[in-house]
Design brief:
alpha+beta; 4 helices
Length: 398
Amino acid sequence: MSTETSGQPHQHAARKLRHLKLICVVAMLVAAGVAAEGIVSRIQSNRALTSWTDAQAIPTVRVVAPQLPKRTDEVELPGRLDAYVNAPIYARVSGYLHAWYADIGTHVKAGQLLAQIDTPDLDQQLQQARADLANAIANEKLAATTARRWTQMLAQDSVSQQATDEKTSDLAAKQATVEASRANVARLEALESFKRITAPFDGVVTARKTDVGALINAGGGSGPELFAVTDSHQLRVYVNVPQSDAAAIKRGLTATLTVPERPGKTFDAHLVDTNDAIAPSSGTMLVQLSVDNANGQLMPGEYAQVHFALPSDGHALLVPASALMFRTDNVQLAVLDANNHVHLRDVKIATDLGSTVLIGAGLEPTDRVIDNPPDSLAEGDQVHLAGLRMAASEGKHV
């Protein structure tokens, strides 16, 4: 009895110890599970945060497509109108103005008498020249008769060869004197014709700078002009075209022009020629056009606005000015490939149009150009397109 009684507490204690161990094991397993769950949850959170951070680090950009410019570019430049022919008329002989027959504004025909000059000195010179010619002709006739006689006597051995040669030479000299006198008479007669001042072509008298009784001094452009005659049936238009547009100026080009005093009225002009040079002082090329003025609506000397429709560069493309990047010695554009990776392109600006620019080289029509690119954008960067976002937890576009 005593042995059984003493063995029962020992067994009870053993069972209790096993029970405590089991509880400890379960508690440890529970604690390990809780700890494992926390670690896994923290790892997942860190991974999600990393993915979200990486997704946020990829910039979102907006792309634009290069546009083809208009087939023609409108250019407006100031110009001046000049008469197609403008002739200042000077006197070729000296004297006094006898009379004038055309005042400013007179429409004249070619050869019409404008004025007449009295030239008493020239008249006397012409008379003297004619008298000298008559004297030379008489001497030439006498010398011819003498030379003929001496030649006949030489055939009879009545005179020497030397004497005959002298008479023959004298005849030649007298003949030369006659020719010189005749040329002098012709010269003075030509000058006499300039006593009559006539219009060189059909036109309008635009200036009269002399009057009856005025002393006229012969001049070859250095003295004061007597009249000015202008042919304004056709006008020349002179325009200074900037160097950037000079290459587009070619034969066959047409333009329209307007003048302030005729608002809403346009006149057609066509290119005549250019001076094929850029002026260093202004950086422009002088262009000459022609405009018909048969109805007389335009006047020489007027200011005009000339409108050119210049052909655009067929290879140039338009992009927003905000797409340009100025981070190197050259201007760049950021374009995207099929995988939305950035590629920086060096480009050449053909024309700056303000909000847009015309790119002459370095860009293709199929390129996708990033507008307002971030300053940190570099070659090969991955970007998102505006309107798309990356779901960090799912790893796909939504």
